[in-house]
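Quick question, first post here. What does this chain look like in 3D?
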Amino acid sequence: MTALNSKGWALAKRPVGMPKSDDFQMIDGEAAAPANGEIQVQNSWMSVDPYMRGRMYDRESYVPPFQIGELLQGGAVGRVTASAHPDFSEGDLVTSMAGWREAWTAKPEAVGATKMPSTELPDSALLGVAGMPGLTAYAGLLRVAALKEGDTVFVSGAAGAVGSTVAQIAKIKNCKVIGSAGGKEKCDLLKELGVDEVIDYKAHDTYESLLGALQKAAPKGIDVYFDNVGGDHLEAAIECARPMARFAVCGMISQYNATEPVPGPRNMIQIVGKQLSIRGFIVSTHADMQPDFMADMAKWIKSGQMQFEETVMEGIESAPEAFLGLFQGRNRGKMLVKLA
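> Answer (accepted):
Ran it through. Tokens below.
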């Protein structure tokens, strides 16, 4: 067993506002030959996700912040190249949180490594529709928002990895779906996925215009809002919510790079009169849904009811650019970096 060369990325400094390329630094390292209980893995794919921006702040959250000069973390999939662990063999496919690097050596539990069964899906799907983003959509819509057949569902960020999955699950469950996305290309994608009403938020760049578009798309109001964006989208959703509507708040990407506090929705008082349920959630809390999620997702993909898009950038060198692209609207579906 030999060591593998491995380039990776760390924070050079904490970003202020929108991250920049010089906030990151490349580190040349290696993945050592595994010691007892360890495995060595060559990553083939890594994920970049909006939640990673929160870990770049030095503040308490549901996960610890990234540390300056230490390799970043995130979802990855790869193959075992050497093993000193009884449950892993050379060639096994594994997912882990040891992304942002080409290769790694560790005890599996230290990096959340899981051996994956054989599947007809491409390996990259384990970081998207059949991975954390897919489970986020599944748990948020079916459990947190308690989706019911016939609901009118509004999804913001609907062309992204989570939002596009939410929209399709809602259609599978016989709901009317309204999706918001930025630009013609992304809106065309939503139409291809069967979304009933599509709102181009770039063409409705004021709150009043966005609200008008949502009211036109849902003249009788909405029953469910799946929030990936926050800001004006959240305010418009409250305005258009029917009594007893349920909101699953997954993220608020419009505020991730804010340098000062952002005003909240001006119509919060309607939460009381309409008896709205608004609940934020973290996908790890709903890990018990994994078996049902994987069974349903495999069935939906095989039947053609679930489509998925990937935006792929090549090579470890492109990882920061891929991450920045999330905040520049450059991804259709899941943003991924292909490593090998």
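The chain has eight helices and 15 strands.
Helices lie at 132-144, 161-172, 184-192, 207-217, 231-240, 270-273, 290-303, 319-327.
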